[in-house]
Amino acid sequence: MDDPITDDLLAILACPKCKAPLARQADLLVCTRLECRLRYPIRDGIPILLMDEAELPSPA
Ligand SMILES: [Zn+2]
Questions:
Q1: CB within 5 A of ion ligand 1: which residues?
Q2: What's the gap in Å between 27 CA and the centre of ligand 1?
Q3: Cα(38)–Cα(30) distance, rounded to whole angstroms?
C-alpha cells in the first residue's frame, strides 16, 4: 500500500498549536519544536492534526 504521507504533504503540514513543521515518526507526526513536541496520530493514512487528539511527548 502506498504511503499517503508523502514528503510533499509533510512539507505543507504544521503543528496546529505552534505552527512548527512536523516530522514523521512511524504512525505519528511529531512537532519539531523542542518546547512543543506534541504528537499527532495518523489514522487510515490521514494525519489527525487536532490538539484534542495530540499526545504529549513522553518525559525525557
Ligand atoms: Zn508544536
A1: 15, 17-18, 20, 31, 33, 36
A2: 17
A3: 6
Rounded (to 5) percent helix, strand, coil in the chain: 10, 30, 60
Region class of 59: left (phi > 0), else alpha (psi between -120 and 50), else beta? beta
Q: What is the pTM of this model?
A: 0.86
Cβ count near 20 (within 10 Å): 16
For 24-48, write each residue's pLDDT tens digit: 999 999 999 999 999 999 999 999 9
Furthest-apart CA atoms within the chain: distance in Å = 34
